[in-house]
Automatic annotation (TrEMBL), chains A, B:
Residues 446-538 form the Non-reducing end beta-L-arabinofuranosidase-like GH127 middle domain. Residues 541-685 form the Non-reducing end beta-L-arabinofuranosidase-like GH127 C-terminal domain. It comes from the Bacteria. Residues 39-435 form the Non-reducing end beta-L-arabinofuranosidase-like GH127 catalytic domain. Residues 1-32 are annotated as: Disordered. It holds the Pfam family Glyco_hydro127C. One of its GO terms (biological process) is carbohydrate metabolic process. This is Glycoside hydrolase family 127 protein. Residues 1-11 have a biased composition (Polar residues).
Amino acid sequence: MHPPDASTTAENHPPHSAATHARPVSPNHGTLTPLGLDEVRLTDGFWAQRARINAEHTLDHCQRWMQRLGWIDNFDIAAHALTHGTEGDHRGPEFADSEIYKLLEALAWESHRSGDADLDRRFTELAARVAAAQHPDGYLNTCYGRPGRPQRYSDLAWGHELYCYGHLIQAAVARARTNAADDLLLTVARRVADHLYTEFGPTGRTAVCGHPEIETALVELYRVTGQRRHLELATLFIDRRGTGTLPAIRFGAAYFQDDQTIRDATVLRGHAVRALYLSAGAVDVGVETGDRTLIDAVRTQWATTLARRTYLTGGMGSHHLDESFGADFALPPDRAYAETCAGIASVMVSWRLLLATGDSRYADLVERTLFNIVATSSRADGRAFFYANTLHQRIPGRIPAEDEVSASAGASLRPAWYSVSCCPTNIARTLASVSGYVATRDADGVQIHQYTACEIRTRLDDGTEIDLEIITSYPHDRSVAIRVLTPGYFGLTLRVPHWAQGTATLDAGDGLLAQLDDPTVTVRREFAEGETLRLDFDLTPRYTRADDRVDALRGCVAVERGPLVLCAESVDLPAELDLEDLRVDLSVAPQPSPEGAMVRVRRRPEPIAWLGGWGPYGYPLHQLDNDLVTDGGKTAESSTTAHGTVLEADTAASAPEPDLGHWVLLRPYHQWANRGPSTMRVWLPVR
Amino acid sequence: MHPPDASTTAENHPPHSAATHARPVSPNHGTLTPLGLDEVRLTDGFWAQRARINAEHTLDHCQRWMQRLGWIDNFDIAAHALTHGTEGDHRGPEFADSEIYKLLEALAWESHRSGDADLDRRFTELAARVAAAQHPDGYLNTCYGRPGRPQRYSDLAWGHELYCYGHLIQAAVARARTNAADDLLLTVARRVADHLYTEFGPTGRTAVCGHPEIETALVELYRVTGQRRHLELATLFIDRRGTGTLPAIRFGAAYFQDDQTIRDATVLRGHAVRALYLSAGAVDVGVETGDRTLIDAVRTQWATTLARRTYLTGGMGSHHLDESFGADFALPPDRAYAETCAGIASVMVSWRLLLATGDSRYADLVERTLFNIVATSSRADGRAFFYANTLHQRIPGRIPAEDEVSASAGASLRPAWYSVSCCPTNIARTLASVSGYVATRDADGVQIHQYTACEIRTRLDDGTEIDLEIITSYPHDRSVAIRVLTPGYFGLTLRVPHWAQGTATLDAGDGLLAQLDDPTVTVRREFAEGETLRLDFDLTPRYTRADDRVDALRGCVAVERGPLVLCAESVDLPAELDLEDLRVDLSVAPQPSPEGAMVRVRRRPEPIAWLGGWGPYGYPLHQLDNDLVTDGGKTAESSTTAHGTVLEADTAASAPEPDLGHWVLLRPYHQWANRGPSTMRVWLPVR
């Protein structure tokens, strides 16, 4: 982190040339500079495939649904009201505007990435409909502030007006960075930002929006325009959060992070998406203002949240009721909320911290979350989406009808659309810009954070050209080849994921294998054209156990392979095996298989007190007989023995245990629920 | 069960004499006849004390709050609208009327039980205000069906109109059974029932209410009035449920049990209170119509629900979001909803099944639920109430202000009132009639189901007078003395709770101790005046383990003592011990103490991968090293050993384990949160 001297940042920065900054986050300071969509071109492999499905199906899918439901027409109605003073309906949730904005952001990235003229035209058409609804003073919202609708800013707690602006600005920023010539939406965004400065700036009302998002957006707008007052307003919103300007609500002030200031908090809490968007904004403000206290506060919160409030998949948020983080270690797999948007927001935060600090552990979490949350949400065809990402499905999930609008986040397998449909458009904009999260550069060279087939072409500040080709089927293949296309002297830094440290190897071109024990490895030398480095990961599947304070996971293991969390799904089981009856035999290591892994299991003994339906006493709880417990003075060994004796007594009292061993197939979690209704477990009890 | 011959029940039954039936449930058929409030007089002890606090504090508390919030005034406003055609506001939730009705029911029972003229006067005054709001055609609801309010029956899914009638009828029935001379509310209830028969009867609309309750109420009204059409309408509602007459809602049709007919269902599902009220009504209809299929269906559902979807406390319902039962074995203690009203409804169902079948296991669950849910809800002073009854409080609960209306069920320790305040008035009516759940009679004698200090005076059908005095401090005392006050030949049946079978003893007056192995023991002989039987329970505290399919409870034990579930509360711990760090040492039996039990614990080893805040890699999940797992061919013993080796490796890698043993005090769960903010656990991990 190299924060600018305060005296030099007091003036407006000159805007960067947009053409070279086609990237979601474009900080003026920090340790690493992100490579944009022009610099990292996905060629094939895991993320190229997902980006392709996104481009071919998801963008169109989102636009059709919003057209069908009237969410796009809202802008026409609002525009008509503006010019004719008419009343008019509003369709969809109060924040429906933001879904159009997220689609616009996705169209901006994707039209640039692919050069698809049709996508470009759709952006322009949609942007014009949005622009027509802007009030003369810059206000823009189709749900509020016009005849027959509630007054503007009359419900800051729940109205989402500033949240919607945030996504509008992000769409405008994406367009400015990819097609600077089409500046209509940027003009709209600048007028919005000026209006906001008047309303909420130093001389306006002391307030914040119930849903953060405007903060990070204003900083990005500042990065495009160089207008210092955008950053100033973002800083005000960050400083005001936690000072109790929002009204009391049912879920408490922590729900929208108004219980503590960002600098005071030590862990993320409340509504997960809100908490994470706010954190992204706080890092952005900290980076641009040089306020290290903000960055350090978010680093602390990130670390604590990861250690205590994060699912194995990278999912965050365990409460369905208020979509919030639960208490420390309250991570039940079967009631995991782990909203897709929270996963995306977590990637946003981790990426910003990586750029600010250069610490590769942030890229570790980006990888975990991309493969196990972002890749999980979409159905294989990109036309249906998980909102909540459970780690345990006990009852075969229902497959919704293709024309069904789901009213509930966790009620079925992936539906095509939701009445609150934040996740599909969030997936769309993220996959359209996913190549922007692969690599960075600094003064010495290039850092590769995510391994996926791509071509990297960039130029260091000293003019050194670096052209690389990454050839890999990772995470399905253990090898990553990095081919140098242009000779030169530079540093090449490769991330070694947490799970690979100590087992990954690097052949730096000399045929010798170096074992990689550290979080990163850097090769700095004169590279020849065509030279190839080969990184090799040990993709042996591995058992993973949770901190024993996570109640629901005691006595369980998960199986991971490389960066992928695996799961057992009922459709892969022999007919005679119920998923709930599997007990992993830990004496046997999990074996690799082309689909994922094979795990040796036994069936659980019949429960001693179990009764289906009416029979003898049906209580599910059986008692330890205290006769089996001997008083006092025993050693730890005999404690274990006493416990074991009791369990044996249980077994003896029940039917003879069927001693059948089975090999059970586990597949990547992100693939689950693509083959009809099924039950599923990530965490498997051990024998 | 002796169901009546269908031909004899086609005519109206003559009403019972109300004076002898001062009891909540008064079936015309079945195995056991409940003893009413006149027949069982609480003298002292656990339930007498709670009934006293209820009478002295809770009834007044509820009335004052509803007066303050305008819920009682709603009736005056509605009455004025009726006579003057005025518009008028409505305060509180759409079902606020039902809270006044539950208070009326409580006042009816309590004024009779205590003979308190002030309570009697308050009933009369409130009933008059209710009566004034009844429409000429019998309709009565302050939220619907008047100028400025939504139309009557315009929202059967959520409007609660029939639910409100149900509680109105129950209040009228309670009054009819305790003070037949004051028949104003009964008249109102009969007009309501006639109106309902027109609207929803055989020639009316084919519909049900989104919230069951009317079914059981109509059967009780039939039991008072003998009017066959009340029973007929209840039967229609029972038969219609599950046929999809309600609209689609976000939570699915199972939420209000409209997914399956009662006869088809094998387990309770959806909203717990709705499911249980409906079950109570189904048993009532089955008993009065002789339809054994209904009773058998509820018996099956009860057994399955108890085995798979019930907390140790008897609590039911694990979802906060939709207040529903979760899937089988989805019983996380920290997110237990276990609504107080669901506990009360469970007592209603179990009591009905006990009366119908005579099977004492139903009384076992009544006992478990009374001591661990009903007794838990109220604060010690009877002026604040739990709505949700968690089994694990991870963060010290907040104590709400005395004038705070809680908007959320699980947001704090017991608040004085809720915006949705169903539980306090439900507690009020239940504690005012709790003596009605103690004992029954049949042709041969008396059955005692709940042990609490009381006097029992009843007369069998053959004229035999039975007068008994029960002397006990149970559950705090192991002994129950039963003194015969009037000599005679009769049978005396005593329930032996599940946990006491095999250890309880009976001295039937001959000085010999008989060990009781069965669920009940009956002594039938000529009893002399003053003769005393003595029942003795083994109240040694005991460890209890859960079915290992309950994910969150693997590797945990609870401690029970008699019918009481115990818990550890942070205020009882030495300052150096964190509740989350306790690990029970199972080699040592729990020891009795005057407050509950003492349990030997050790502190958990420091976690290997645990990091508070920022430090080395903060991920909460540590990996099993596959090197420690040997491939193939091992026996069960070596499996355990391999697992053990891994754990030892973990321990070795961490700080040396502090080998401090501690005795930790556990107290009855129902007492928790009466001594300031604390953390609490029922289920304790084992070492």
